[in-house]
Specification:
Elements lengths: L2 E10 L13 E9 L2 E7 L8 E12 L1 E3 L11 H8 L9 H10 L2 H17 L2 E7 L6 H12 L4 E7 L10 H18 L5 E6 L6 H13 L3 E6 L7 H8 L3 E4 L5 H10 L2 E4 L1 H7 L6 H6 L4 E3 L13 H11 L4 H15 L16 E4 L6 H4 L6 E6 L2 E5 L11
Parallel strand pairs: 1-4, 5-6, 6-7, 7-8, 8-9, 9-10, 10-11, 11-12
Antiparallel strand pairs: 1-2, 2-3, 4-13, 13-14, 14-15
């Protein structure tokens, strides 16, 4: 058994559900990791011996971010579209077709290389758990290949062949829905390639009845549902998410009080995606309504080449606090424990005894600096299962700073 002791932690964010405060913050703490799992938490003065000792030198430690919504397997560049949108062009679902064309032309090696590059970037920003969707190939083989690539990097893989209707099915969209149901879902399930099924339920993508058919087919093959719901309009997707028992309903930009009450009742997590509103100039949802309704809220990046190409959770947190009315504490909880809830994970998103030891040592004395200093790298070291996976060393420690 190998052990790692992290000592002299100014603030240890545990997300302990039994703590009096939301984040379960412990001051002047130490944490023992054994074989990749948190084995003990207490005061630094009472810390046990370990094979390796790392001093946080008066800095904060937080759980690794759990990014529960990502579109990372793609090719091509849509920066021109972004520039046009910033100049006044409206966002619509149709731009996805541009990425579909480029993705179909790319090799599996190119797609995986780009995926790894994006994952490494996110790890440098403190993300340790990723959900990854297919959805830019939209043929049977390209969707399955995307899932095979994703599966090599995460257990949280999502079949999202229902992203948009590809051009070859434009005049017969229900035939494409049949293809998803009759071929893609059964093969993805049979090969063990997907844990989740997802549908973009929106004007320009899939309507309510098409979405229901796809989700029900996924459920029949053991794929758990999550939905892109109410991003651009309230066309009933949120009500459908509650009806089918979606684990997570993502975007959730336009939500009625009635929908919030139903979502809270069934326990669906609402995953908000701050960088998407930032990049599309859609209105920011007010999270105070969601919390008042008793809904569990997660924050994820939704990193994708079109509507929001950022994989930085600290950036998303800063937007959430400034423009969505999260408190700093709510934003950090939603990006860690909330993301874990959206993936039905109990081993990540917290630092309590028995949790997987995924954590970041900040280059700051408090977790508040993640939002207090937006755009500044505040992640010094990142660990997954107690192993250092990323380092952004600072020339000074907090104790040496004036």
């Amino acid at each position: 058994m190998t052990s790692l002791l992290v000592t002299d932690i100014a603030e240890l964010v545990t997300n302990d559900p039994h703590a009096q405060d939301l984040l379960g913050v412990r001051q002047n703490a130490a944490m023992l990791v054994e074989d990749g799992t948190v084995a003990w938490i207490g005061d630094t003065a009472q810390a046990p011996a370990a094979d390796e000792v790392v001093s946080a030198t008066g800095r904060a430690v937080i759980p690794g971010f759990v990014d529960s919504h990502n579109h990372l397997i793609f090719a091509g560049d849509r920066s021109e579209e972004f520039a046009a949108r910033m100049a006044g062009q409206a966002y619509s679902a149709g731009g996805i077709a541009t990425t579909v064309s480029a993705t179909r032309e790319a090799s599996a090696h190119q797609l995986e290389g780009n995926l790894v590059r994006l994952l490494r970037q996110a790890e440098h920003s403190g993300t340790t758990t990723f959900e990854i969707k297919s959805g830019y190939g939209l043929t049977v083989e390209s969707e399955l290949e995307a899932l095979r690539i994703a599966r090599r990097h995460t257990a949280e893989t999502t079949l999202m062949a229902a992203h948009v209707v590809p051009a070859e099915y434009k005049e017969a969209p229900d035939n494409y829905v049949d293809l998803i149901i009759e071929q893609m879902i059964p093969r993805a399930a049979q090969e063990g390639l997907a844990k989740w099924i997802d549908v973009f339920c929106e004007e320009g993508a899939f309507d309510i009845e098409q979405t229901r058919r796809i989700v029900e087919a996924g459920l029949a093959h053991g794929l758990k549902p999550r939905l892109h719901a109410n991003q651009l309009s309230d066309m009933g997707a949120m009500a459908l998410a509650a009806e089918v028992g979606a684990v997570s309903a993502d975007h959730a930009t336009f939500v009625s009080d009635e929908d919030l009450a139903r979502i809270a009742e069934v326990g669906t997590v609402l995953t908000l995606l701050p960088s998407i509103e930032f990049s599309t100039r859609q209105p920011y949802p007010d999270v105070r309504r969601y919390h008042e309704a008793g809904v569990t809220v997660a924050i994820a990046s939704d990193c994708n080449p079109g509507s929001g190409f950022s994989n930085s959770i600290p950036f998303c947190m800063a937007i959430a606090v400034r423009d969505m009315h999260f408190t700093v504490e709510q934003a950090l909880w939603s990006a860690t424990a909330g993301g874990a809830r959206a993936l039905q994970r109990t081993d990540v998103g917290a630092l309590t005894v028995g949790s997987r030891a995924d954590f970041s040592i900040l280059d700051a004395p408090s977790y508040r600096h993640l939002v207090y200093r937006p755009g500044v790298q505040q992640i010094a070291e990142v660990y997954r299962a107690g192993t250092l996976i990323s380092s952004n060393p600072s020339p000074f420690t907090c104790k040496e700073l004036p």
